Amino acid sequence: MCELFGLSANRPVATRDTLLGRFPPRGGQVADNPDGWGLAWRDSVAAADAGFHLSKEPTPGWQSPLFARLADTLVSDLMVGHVRKARFPPVNSLNNTHPFQRACCGRNWVFAHNGMVPDVVQLERDNRDSYCQPEGETDSEFAFCHLLGHLHGHHAGDWLAELGRISELIALHGKFNFLLSDGIHLIAYGHDRLHYLETAGGAERIALVTTEPLSGHLGWTAFAPGELRIYRRGALEARLLTHPLEPDIKPGILK
Prior knowledge:
With 255 residues, the chain is α+β, with helices and mostly antiparallel strands. The chain has helices at residues 65-73, 119-126, 139-154, 159-171; strands at 3-14, 37-42, 52-57, 75-83, 100-104, 107-114, 177-181, 185-190, 195-201, 204-210, 221-222, 227-232, 235-241. Strands 3-2-4-1-10-9-11 form a 7-stranded antiparallel β-sheet, covered by helices on one side. A 6-stranded antiparallel β-sheet has the order 5-6-7-8-12-13, covered by helices on one side. A hairpin with a 2-residue loop joins β5 and β6.
């Protein structure tokens, strides 16, 4: 199943000095994710509202010269990456390749997902007031639009609590691990399969979030089930634990 890579730092860092170089092989060489790769990053000299650069291909990440070059040459302080195992639908196309990008609430957002939440597709198709329309066919992009719709309605209030609430509801209908960014924060939701590594040395502070640890470093820590973590400039800004229903309780309808 798909894998995620996220980076938040307090200053631009050369990706060759991070673990990003170990991520392209996860795209079909050392892990079964051969159906596309994508990378969104904030320009090291751009303002936060300038949005992300986005590169992606519906081809195996480990075979991509572009992916390898980006992993070796980028300088950034905020990044979201993805390698895909196509399941919903099992179709390789550029529009089905993560991350996805949208404008909302005065900011530019990117989103990448690991898992399957097919119920959200029909929910969004039935929603006449849907905030955005997916360009591809994946349940992931439909879930992204669903999240943005709720954030759009709560961006002036407690958006963190609302994000936790709707993430939990979506997760109850499948598996919903994701990375989300508004150009300022790195937002990570670990339904059942994420790890983080936080490092601080001198003037440098870096937080990495990945599906599986990319090294033998002892500092990797698994997310608690249903844990939402928000990083800004490499530091943990907020943490929220959602509470899944008991196993014998049938999940309700998303709202």
